[in-house]
Structure formats: C-alpha cells, structure tokens
Amino acid sequence: STTGQYGFETVQDGNFTSAKPQYAYPVTWKWLDYYKNPVWLTATLYVRVDAAPQNFNFNRSLGQISFNITSATPGSCNVTVPKLLMDGAFKVFINDTLVPSILTWNKTHTFIYFTYSQGTHNIKIIGEIVTRIRGLVLLAICDVNGDGIVDIFDITSVALFYKWEEEVKNQ
Q1: What does the longest C-alpha to C-alpha distance in the chain come to?
Q2: What stretch of H or E contains 135?
Q3: If you write DSSP's letter for every residue of 101-113 in order, what string do you get?
Q4: CB-based contact 123:92 (threshold 8 Å)
Q5: What 3-state DSSP class applies to 126?
Q6: Closest CA to 77 of 149, 11, 165, 156
Q7: Are 75 and 49 in contact, with CB atoms under 8 Å apart?
Q8: CA distance 92 to 170
Q9: What H or E segment, with its residue span, contains residue 127?
Q10: First to last CA, the chain
C-alpha cells in the first residue's frame, strides 16, 4: 500500500472548469537491462477522483492496480498509467464486476476513465505488465539521430554507416 501525493488538476468539461483532486503514486520495481544487470525503475501512476483513494496497491505479478473509494455521490475517475509499467488492454472492475471504461493513450501513457455510483467501492484495474524493457535499450541504440523516434532517417543512417548504397539503373 502506498500513500499518494495530493494535488489538483484543472478539468475542462464543456464550458465548466473545475479543479479535480489528483493523487500521485510512485511505483518502483527491479528489472534486468539489456546486459541482464539489475535496474530499479520508477513510474508514477495518477488517480484523478473526487473521493480520496484508500489502500492504493500495485501488484506487478497480477498486473493489477487496486484502491478503494467511498463517495456520497456518483462520480468519475481517470487513472493515468505509464506505458513503461503497463500497456495493452485494460479491464476495470468495481466490486468484482466488470464496468465500461474509456481508454485513450499517447506515446507514453494510457488514460483509463470510468464512472462509479455512490457508496464504497473496491476498484481493480487489470492490464498487461510490460516485459519489453530491453526493447527500450534497443530503441535507444536504433534512434541514431536522437529524436526519440525510430524511422526511415535512422534506418538510412545505419545503412550508410555499413556502406549500403542504392542501386541506380541507368535509363
């Protein structure tokens, strides 16, 4: 169980702007790098919800984030998960019942949105644990020009380094 740092995030909902409480939970785990050396990694999960989360827990072996909330009114929750930690398909359970959720993402994070009714709820978010950390090292090696993206420019640079030349046909 981890205690989250508390802050506010401005939420725009149509023409209404409000400050929604945000709780940050750093999660640290040990991984092996490309050369099988142990490395400690830390990623921060964010939970935006009006009712303060209690008993927050991340279980790496189960691929599960869990916490409890108690609310006098219905509400919504948005959980931000770094892709370094978990990726792929996510399922949200409230009191062991699968509930609808909306997933959006960018290059680095997945955003999981769901609603809840009034009452006390046990929330479980189950996803896929990332096992591709070694690929990040490979990505860094392949990103020849250092722009954070492996693309045709990197492939061309590597090809030219190894003396590849395009065959040109005389016409």
Answers
A1: 78
A2: helix 133-142
A3: -EEEE-SSEEEEE
A4: yes
A5: strand
A6: 11
A7: yes
A8: 61
A9: strand 119-129
A10: 71
Q: Which residue has the tokens 């709820």?
A: 121
Residue 43's CB: how many other CB atoms inside 10 A?
19
Strand partners for 81? 110
Provide the whole-model pTM: 0.67
Q: Minimal CA–CA distance to 33: which of 25, 41, 22?
A: 41
Residue 90 has phi, psi (to 5 degrees) of: -120, 145
What DSSP letter does each residue of 33-89 carry, written as one string?
A: -TTS-EEEEEEEEEEEESSPPEEEEEETTTTEEEEEEEESS-EEEEEEEETTTEEEE
Task: Look at residues 43, 46, 42, 44 and name the one whose alpha carbon lies nearest to residue 7.
Answer: 46
Nearest Cα to 1, choosing from 87, 59, 47, 48?
A: 59
- What are 42's strand-pairing partners? 28
Q: Tens-digit pLDDT profile for the chain (171 aa)?
A: 344 444 544 444 444 445 678 899 998 877 766 677 777 888 899 999 988 999 999 988 888 999 999 999 999 999 999 887 888 889 999 999 999 999 998 888 999 999 999 999 999 999 987 754 444 444 444 555 555 555 666 566 555 555 544 444 444
